[in-house]
UniProtKB/TrEMBL annotation:
Its main location: cytoplasm. The gene is trpS. SUPFAM superfamilies: Nucleotidylyl transferase. Coiled coil: none annotated. This is Tryptophan--tRNA ligase. A motif ('HIGH' region) lies at residues 13-21.
Length: 333
């Protein structure tokens, strides 16, 4: 079957992947790969925009690659590789940086959040500012149509569209103009300890998230400790019951059952019973991912071969795009 469109996405190797990453992004990667040309990248160059401990950075990069595969990304269906193995990404990022207004970068929410309260003198790094340009390069090199991401990345995709359109209008059509692909219910899974902020790898407490590799006991303990709202009804209402609604969203996504169905099941039950069942559901759904991951850790050589193969395949596409870009701009090639 001819695959329809091109899908590209990436995840940073900056710590434990959690169920927010899975529901907001990786699960969509898996679903989309069968009907679309798909390229999935471990974006290590993005991770170093915040200081990394070398050993951890190395481990985390392989961990994300193995989790991609453990979650169901099939290297026979998709191209899976490490960003830094395909040098076209940083080269196109440089070129795009020369076309990017500084103001556009400064107004990005992620940049503002990461630099909040600090002055330039206090060490706001240029890498954080230029982060979206590298992300645009990642996407545009593959003539991408669809970018599956969580809601926090939508602004970066809009920025990518702006750069693609700018280049196309200056030099003639060169890039596809991509669109964000966001799953309405799971685009922003909130923290378990604080439903007013998104679930995040960099949260101060590990009670904020369920890691994809958390043990059954950790899952039980974290769900038991998760914040709830006043009252005792298991009801979906994002305004009045933000914490319970977040837990219902997680339950609903893993059980593949609508909110209303879950409300029905727990109509005469309390938070405690709901939380117990949610913990057991998560344990059951994460078990096959954890098993596959464990197998892969015993076969790191095979994982590296997949990644090197992925890089070779990715470069066939990215080198073609980069050559077109340079030729149009007048580079001697
Ligand atoms: P990152 O860990 O920042 O590289 O994110 C990887 C992917 O997961 C991106 O597409 C994010 O938008 C998505 N993501 C991260 N946190 C969440 C969350 N709390 N809810 C839904 N999606 C998320
Ligand atoms: N910025 C994304 C994040 O933090 C990661 C990323 C880098 C990405 N390059 C990308 C996502 C290209 C989609 C497409 O989640």
């Amino acid at each position: 079957m001819k695959k329809k469109q091109t899908v590209f996405s990436g995840v940073q190797p900056t710590g434990v992947l959690h169920i927010g990453n899975y529901l907001g992004a990786i699960r969509q990667f898996v679903d989309l790969q069968y009907t679309n040309e798909s390229v999935f990248c471990v974006v290590d160059h993005h991770a170093i925009t915040v200081p990394q401990v070398p050993e951890e950075f190395h481990e985390n990069t392989l961990k994300v690659a193995m989790l991609y595969i453990a979650c169901g990304i099939d290297p026979k269906e998709s191209i899976v590789f490490i960003q830094s193995h395909s040098t076209e990404h940083t080269e196109l990022a440089w070129i795009l940086n020369t076309m990017t207004p500084l103001g556009e970068l400064e107004r990005m929410t992620q940049f503002k959040e990461k630099t909040e309260g600090r002055t330039k003198k206090e060490g706001v790094l240029a890498g954080i500012l230029n982060y979206p340009t590298l992300m645009a390069a990642d996407i545009l090199l593959y003539q991408t149509d669809i970018v599956p991401v969580g809601e926090d990345q939508v602004q970066h995709i809009e920025f990518t569209r702006m750069l693609a359109e700018k280049f196309n209008s200056r030099y003639g059509r060169t890039f596809s103009v991509p669109e964000a692909y966001v799953q309405r219910d799971t685009a922003r899974i909130m923290g378990l300890d604080d439903a007013s902020k998104k679930m995040s790898k960099s949260a101060p407490s590990s009670n904020n998230y369920i890691g994809l590799l958390d043990s059954p006991n950790e899952i039980r303990q974290k769900i038991a400790a998760a914040a709830t709202d006043s009252g005792k009804e298991v009801q979906y209402n994002k305004i009045k019951k933000p914490a319970i609604s977040n837990l219902i969203e997680i339950y609903s996504a893993f059980a593949e059952s609508p909110h209303s169905e879950i409300e029905k099941i727990y109509k005469d039950k309390n938070y405690y019973e709901f939380k117990n069942d949610l913990a057991e559901l998560l344990i059951k759904k994460l078990a096959p991912i954890q098993e596959k991951y464990k197998e892969l850790t015993k076969n790191k050589k095979q994982v590296l071969e997949i990644l090197y193969g992925g890089s070779r395949k990715s470069r066939i596409i990215s080198q073609t795009t980069l050559s077109q870009v340079k030729e149009k701009m007048g580079y001697v090639i």
